Amino acid sequence: MAMRDLSELFVGAGAEAGSRFESARAVVRGLRNGMHFTGKLLGGASVLAFFLLLFRARLVPRWLSSFGAGAALLQMASVARPLFGHEVIYPMLPLGIAYATMFIWLLIKRFTQGMDRAADAPRAA
């Protein structure tokens, strides 16, 4: 809301008033980034808990749940950097690869289970 209100004031003031809005822009950007990266950090903690649950319950192969937990830790480390004045390191965000790998593994596993059930089913004459 603050970003929208500031943008409306900036547009209404005209192009020559741009320098007067720099300090307000910096404050609003800091507020937005603080909320955004804190939310991503907490979201990474819940994803870490999810992959640790999968690891503990052995619902997926351990290598897959370990990769997901490691990816969640890397994401949390990367998105916590702006909270300490550093930039996000985007190559440290492999969580999408972990999700895609999990999706493909579950998809293949389901298809192979479906094939096994179809082969075991009695044939109708």
Characteristics of this structure?
125 residues, mainly alpha, 4 helices
Strand content: under 5%
Can you give the mean pLDDT? 84
- Can you count the helices? 4
Major sheet size, sense and barrel closure: none
The shape, in one word, is elongated
Radius of gyration: 23 Å
User: Helicity level, as a percent range?
Assistant: over 70%
Unreliable stretches (pLDDT < 50, length at least 5) are none
C-alpha end-to-end distance: 67 Å
Count of strand segments:
0
Please identify the structural class as seen in this structure: mainly alpha
Order of helices and strands: HHHH
What does this structure look like?
- The chain has 125 residues and is mainly α.
- It is built from 4 helices and no strands.
- The chain has helices at residues 2-13, 22-57, 62-80, 95-120.
- Helix 2 runs antiparallel to helix 3 (62-80) and helix 3 packs antiparallel against helix 4.
- The longest helix has 36 residues, at 22-57.
- The termini are far apart.
